[in-house]
């Protein structure tokens, strides 16, 4: 990846060798020029690292957000050039994950399956979507380098489902205005809790800022406030259990010798048409039927039938991660169940740590800091918060799934794509499908809702094969969601 650096506005904190400063300049930017090869073609681009204030209702600055903005530099007309606004989740997580491992122009050094390697570093991302869209990665308040500037500011205006959406809508409006991108087709992408964020944000931007979007990409979505209590909540994890058991080779040969694409439709059908209706009966389900179901669940999940019966068919995810490979002295990861780990002892009902998350932190933090210093020439003593202090987080009033449905209904241009990893136990793939099914009870919007599955976990893009596939899916989604010139937005 070629690089040339030209700083235009240096308002950021350059402080190596001096006492660490608490805050960056709250309104500043620095621009550098680069080039990356994507799908065999050279793509020149500018990278802007910057800060932009967050203002309260009285117009007073209370915080600033740090962002990294990539623009393809050989495009003259930005009015038909898509703009993607990218968020990660947590809440409390910085934008680092998708920034340097998924859609951006650089890729951290990891192996083909996503495991950390040394030496730490990065390389050009030949699968980046920068060839078809400009991208800005945004760190919400108290994540990354973003900070509260008013020490007396009310934290509740930032840290909650609806507060988060409200201040970010104003920030995005200001960013789009400053960058002169109102005419551009616009997209939001969020991962994990970021899907809650962008589902609420697209509706808020439409209805309070009058900014309309062409697409929303939900990567490993949360429940989006969509109800799934009781039997549904317990039963919906079985397809994920089956996928994980298959990956670790612990299923009966009659299933293990089949491909995942053959197994999962069978398990999903059993879950919807047999397990959920049976679990609705609770303690009044006959013992004979309960044993029949436990036997089938054991066949699909790799768990012992007696263990399943002991949990009244409702096996908790935490127990599953501990139990599946207990006889091998191993645990499996939550956010990506391909990863294995070891506990202090094999006994117990929950693992000591998530081996997937530990592996990711190992890979990302060194690479990102190295990238900021050496590629973007951004130097500061301030700590980049991969996970920042944002708690307590107000989760009340989460209607973001309904917010997204409302935005779809009001905007005929808007499309939604969901991306899930089959081995994600934190925001599992079948619950993502369930959310999509429940989001639009009328069925009138389903032609603009799509779901994609990948053979990896929460961050499906860490697996090399899925990095290529998932980026191509986004690339095609963007092309599909941008209408031909002059196409009216109407039903």
Automatic annotation (TrEMBL):
GO terms for biological process: proteolysis. Residues 1-20 form the signal peptide. It comes from the Bacteria. Keywords: Carboxypeptidase, Glycoprotein, Hydrolase, Protease, Signal. GO terms for molecular function: serine-type carboxypeptidase activity. The lineage of its organism: Bacteria, Pseudomonadati, Bacteroidota, Cytophagia, Cytophagales. It holds the Pfam family Peptidase_S10. InterPro entries: AB_hydrolase_fold (IPR029058), Peptidase_S10 (IPR001563). This is Carboxypeptidase.
